[in-house]
Design goal:
mainly alpha, 124 residues, single chain
């Protein structure tokens, strides 16, 4: 996979230059650095925490529960994108929202909606 980045070398060089030319910020415990590098470091740290959480969940919960939690996390990210960055909320977003909440509710309460079945007797 790493040699594949060679195909993107020009684009990567261009973005390193953009990062280097961004506004420089100074924090008490860090040397002055361009803000886009700080954003990238924060993004990498939160991604690390997230993937560690997913690995922990896969050992502690059934796979369907993990999938549900990840879907809800992505939904919260979408809501942050819509409200914080003022991205549009289209009818397709409403449809997706209804699917997310509908699936979540079915997963949580699905067993109580189905009548319990009597165990079948074994035929010999």
């Amino acid at each position: 996979p790493l040699p594949g980045f060679l195909l993107l070398a020009d684009n990567l060089r261009e973005h390193v230059e953009i990062f280097q030319n961004s506004e420089v910020v100074q924090f008490a415990f860090l040397p002055p650095l361009p803000i886009l590098w700080l954003y990238l470091a924060c993004n990498m740290a939160t991604q690390y925490v997230c993937i560690r959480g997913v690995f922990f969940l896969t050992t502690a919960c059934p796979s369907l529960t993990v999938t549900l939690i990840i879907t809800l996390r992505k939904f919260v990210s979408l809501l942050i994108s819509i409200f914080y960055f003022q991205n549009p909320f289209t009818p397709m977003h409403w449809l997706g929202t209804s699917f997310v909440f509908g699936g979540t509710l079915l997963y949580m309460f699905g067993d109580s909606l189905v009548a319990p079945q009597k165990p079948r007797e074994k035929k010999e």
